[in-house]
């Protein structure tokens, strides 16, 4: 291929071409270039082999990928780890187990290698097999890392074993580690589902101090738990921490806090929260507008009420007939007939 051209063989050019072929799933061409590199005395770097392993896996050629590595006597860990990921993603767990065993015998299996399989078993609710692998990992003198613990946390969560998950979390805290995004979200969301809001807040406070992000649904569940228990200050504080960690909040999260402030008759705090929301670029939905209008109506603040009503209508948002009737009635009682007319139109 390259030899047939006028170009002088160069490892960088080979690497770029291999990546290009792999990105376009042209496996045969990529393999041919790899063979040329080896023949030219330029053995491919580990990242080139990672690219070609990804190509094999995307095409579902797991067995061919194993043969490829064997025939070329590859001893780098990264390509094997990529293939392990591919085996797991394809559900080829027997092949993954055999591959990991081979890597372990050759002393090229690292912590990530073990974590890949442990994670798969945990995500598929087979914690027993994950523990067996964990035992083999320890016997191989491989040191567990935060990814190992994160995998075990997610495995226990999916089996509803939240006490075990919290024990693992406390071990993570003792080592000053952090959970990964998926495990963190699963733990917080699961704890909220079983109404263990104090544990969920403990996890959130620790992780937010490390500026870790959280899935928006898990954070909504946490805010909902706090709001349902009437903890106004805590709900706002958690939301502020979420902003600090750049956690994306869904509209339902903001609405839950606004409903709590409305129930608590804290109009000033409601407006202050609204201003903070707008500062971070959050939008209002229909329910949020209705909460604001209801709050202004209770305080007889007709100007603010009309302002929010007008903005709501201009954005094409219309409440259900009962809420609309209450809003129009309030404005009618305060001689806002022009606003009523525009709303009807």
UniProtKB/TrEMBL annotation:
Repeat region (PPR), residues: 10-44, 110-144, 145-179, 180-214, 285-319
Family, per entry: Belongs to the PPR family. P subfamily.
Protein's name in the database: Pentatricopeptide repeat-containing protein-mitochondrial domain-containing protein
Keyword field contains Repeat: yes
PANTHER family the record matches: PENTATRICOPEPTIDE REPEAT-CONTAINING PROTEIN 4, MITOCHONDRIAL-RELATED (PTHR47938:SF35), RESPIRATORY COMPLEX I CHAPERONE (CIA84), PUTATIVE (AFU_ORTHOLOGUE AFUA_2G06020)-RELATED (PTHR47938)
GO molecular function: mRNA binding
Domain of life, per lineage: Eukaryota
Start and end residues of each Pentatricopeptide repeat-containing protein-mitochondrial domain: 200-310
UniProt entry keywords in alphabetical sequence: Repeat
